[in-house]
Amino acid sequence: DEEGNKVELSDRNYSKYITSKNRKVRENAFKSMYDSYHKFINTIASTMSSEVDTNENLAKIKKYDSSISMALYGDNVDISVYNNLINSVNNNMDVLFKYYRLRKDVLKLDELHLYDLYIDLISEQEKEYNFDTAKDLVLKSLSVLGEDYINDLTKAFDERWIDIYSNKGKRSGAYSSGGYDTNPYLLLNYQDKLGDVSTLAHELGHSMHSYYSRLNNTYQDADYKIFVAEVASTVNELLLFKYMLKKSTEKEEKLSILNRLMELFKSTIYRQTMFAEFEKMMYEENAKGEILTAEFLSDKYYELNKKYFGSDVVVDEDIKYEWARIPHFYYFFYVYKYATGLSAACYIVNSILEGKENARENYLEFLKSGGRDYPIEELKIAGVDMNDSKVVESAINMFSEIIDEFNDVYNS
Fold first, then answer.
1. Which of 58, 221, 239, 407 pairs with 298 at a CA distance of 20 to 30 A?
2. What's the pLDDT tens digit per position in 315-366?
């Protein structure tokens, strides 16, 4: 660690050491983590191969064209949506590489290694936002959604939907819950930081989506699918940060917001799509008769990392074992939904802020649709066609603009 003490590394505390300001600590944590997975890589590969085999056989028994067709069937999502995401991201790698060049410059490194990707570009500002301030920011930033939305949103505060602070026996993190015949309920662990303001906006997005879904649908149609679950929450987050960036006069506050946004786009649009591409490759190769050995999976994952990190990052060979520690590969074509959700949210936010005709009204109608139709069709209500590459590109363009703005503010 930073004091030179030998400490035990685990999945639980890895994030602490991979974000250390001491570069040697980051490197040691990175190498120790993947060295440990390397020791068990044959067993994990056997487990992964069995998972893929099981789903492949189930798809054949149930007469699906492929495993991915079976996975997407429940949401009535065509494989073209999945492929469109991967192709759109692959065609816009230059934006991700621009981010890595920025990171390398800000950190003042001769070489940018994979263990340099998680340390904050700037020290988190010490500014505090009490809950009343957070409430005011959220209400003002979401006012673009209209008077009716704000009146309904205000109920969350006035009618005590929110359990704000940490307490004994309370679970960590934040989440929105409730039932068909109850109000949505938010449990937070508010600590007066910028991230807590963002979390409040995010969870209120979930809650308002649930509120409108339950209010406007019968019981059996009130629950929306996971595919659209993160859209409303991310719309709120983006509107909050765009409002704060416009109103803020403090350099450190702006940099903190922009840094958070860059991390959001890097980890959601690009990293999750890389995972989606790897998962698709595993099933396609298995269907061709390829044996998913540890060597095959690790080599393929390493090649994919080199594609996604480009020439500006030293792609340390240890990363070839990272696939072994990603639990989402056992969730059967789930990860792509993170990237499609953020892409849809960006498209909606741009449409609203640009004043496109009926953009706000269409978005609110989407929030009311619940589970009465398939998610792809519900997103069309909000003007979002996930088969259109411009939806994913809207998120990538927003990422590019955020990188440029960070660079401008940082050097001002």
1. 58
2. 999 999 999 999 999 999 999 999 999 999 999 999 999 999 999 999 999 9
Tokens of 118: 């998680």
pTM of the complete model? 0.95
Q: Which two tokens stand for residue 48?
A: 């992964």
pLDDT over 90 (residue 125): no
For 113, the token pair is 């290694």
Pull the structure tokens for residue 403. 């990188």
Output the pLDDT for position 12. Answer: 87
Whole-angstrom Cα distance, residue 37 to residue 340?
A: 30
Q: Is 8 a catalytic residue?
A: no
pLDDT digits (tens, 9 = 90+) for 172-221: 899 999 999 999 999 999 999 999 999 999 999 999 999 999 999 999 99
78: left (phi over 0), alpha (psi -120 to 50) or beta: beta
Average pLDDT, the chain: 96
The three-state DSSP-derived secondary structure of the chain is CCCCCCCCCCCCCHHHHHCCCCHHHHHHHHHHHHHHHHHCHHHHHHHHHHHHHHHHHHHHHCCCCCHHHHHHHCCCCCHHHHHHHHHHHHCCHHHHHHHHHHHHHHHCCCCCEHHHCCCCCCCCCCCCCCHHHHHHHHHHHHHHHCHHHHHHHHHHHHCCCEECCCCCCCCCCCEEECCCCCCCEEECCCCCCHHHHHHHHHHHHHHHHHHHHHHCCCHHHCCCCHHHHCHHHHHHHHHHHHHHHHHCCCHHHHHHHHHHHHHHHHHHHHHHHHHHHHHHHHHHHHHCCCCCCHHHHHHHHHHHHHHHHCCCCECCHHHHHHHHHCHHHHCCCCCHHHHHHHHHHHHHHHHHHCCCCCHHHHHHHHHCCCCCCCHHHHHHHCCCCCCCHHHHHHHHHHHHHHHHHHHHHHCC
Structure token pair of residue 205: 């997005």
pLDDT in tens, 214-241: 999 999 999 999 999 999 999 999 999 9
Residue 292 structure tokens: 């998913």
